Amino acid sequence: MQQSFIHDTGQAATAAPGESAPVVPLRHPVRLAIAVVLILVALSAAWDVAANQSYHWDVVISYLFAPQILAGAGLTIVLTVVSMTVGIAMGTVLAVMRLSANPIVSSISRAYIWFFRGTPLLVQLIFWYNIAALYPVIAFGLPFGGPSMVLGSANVLISPLGAALLGLSLNEAAYMAEIIRGGIGSVDKGQYDAARALGMSPAKLMNRVILPQAMRVVLPPTGNQVISMLKGTSLVSVLAISDLLYSAQIIYAANYQTIPLLIVASLWYLLMTTILSFFQTKLERRYGRGFDAAPRRTRQPKTRTA
Amino acid sequence: MNTAMVEAQGVRKSFGSTEILKGVDLRVERGSVTCLIGPSGSGKTTFLRCINHLEKVDSGRLYVDEHLVGYTERNGRLYEMKERQTARSRLNAGMVFQRFNLFPHMTVLENIVEAPIHVLGRPRNDVTAEAQTLLDRVGLGNRGHSYPQELSGGQQQRIAIARALAMKPKLMLFDEPTSALDPELVGEVLDVMKSLAEAGMTMVVVTHELGFARQVSDQVVFMDQGVVVESGPPSEVLGSPQHERTRAFLSKVL
Question: Which of residues 171-230 of B touch A (CB under 8 A)?
Answer without folding.
Answer: 176, 179-180, 182, 206
